[in-house]
Amino acid sequence: MSDNYIRFIPEELNDRLDLQETLKIKSLDSYGRITVNESEKIEFADAGSNFESVSCPCCGAQLMEWWGEAMEAAWDGQGFISLNITTPCCGKEMSLHNLNYYFNQGFYKVMVELEPEILKPLLWDEIAESIKQELIQITGYEWRIVYAHY
């Protein structure tokens, strides 16, 4: 059996968000089981089997092979310590978080995760966008949607 999750991570890494405010989102209860994950260390919200590729946002070069090495270099065994990288293709300095991931992925210290009970994936985009807008309104931060499939 496979599991699907709709994850919401802030576009910017934040040490603390008001999780109580996040949990007040009225629409979450009607869509499935919701959890809020908070970590002292930087974590990676992956897309599971949805993950297809990663590329440079500056020049579009494919970075899959290099990305694995960059992820290992950023990992200290318990979490990610620094996301700062220089791309091998065009030499741009940026964060691993800001690479182009297809499907979306990224790094977080706080993640809101929905395990949807609605079986029609065609509705998930509408649901996710609605929840994302509520998160933006409540927290004042931009959020990234990560669709994960295992």
Oligomer: single chain
Largest sheet, order of strands side by side? 2-7-1-8
Gross CATH architecture of the largest domain: 2-Layer Sandwich
- Computed Rg: 16 Å
Quick one: biggest sheet?
4 strands, antiparallel
Tell me the CATH topology of the largest domain.
Answer: Alpha-Beta Plaits
What is the average per-residue confidence, as pLDDT, rounded to a whole number? 88
Structural class: alpha+beta
Total discrete domains = 2
Order of helix and strand elements from N to C terminus: EHHEEHEEEEHE
Helix content: 10-25%
Quote the distance from N terminus to C terminus.
9 Å
Number of helices: 4
Strand content range: 25-35%
Which stretches of 5+ consecutive residues score pLDDT under 50? none
**Shape, please?**
globular
CATH class of the largest domain: Alpha Beta
Task: Tell me the total number of β-strands.
Answer: 8
Question: Could you name the key traits of this structure?
Answer:
150 residues; Alpha-Beta Plaits; 4 helices; 8 strands
Give a verbal description of the structure.
The structure is a single chain. The chain is of the alpha+beta class. It has two domains: 1-51 and 106-150, Alpha-Beta Plaits (2-Layer Sandwich); 53-102, no CATH class. It is 23% helix and 34% strand. It is built from four helices and eight strands. A four-stranded antiparallel β-sheet has the order 2-7-1-8. It is globular and about 45 Å long. The N and C termini lie close together (9 Å).
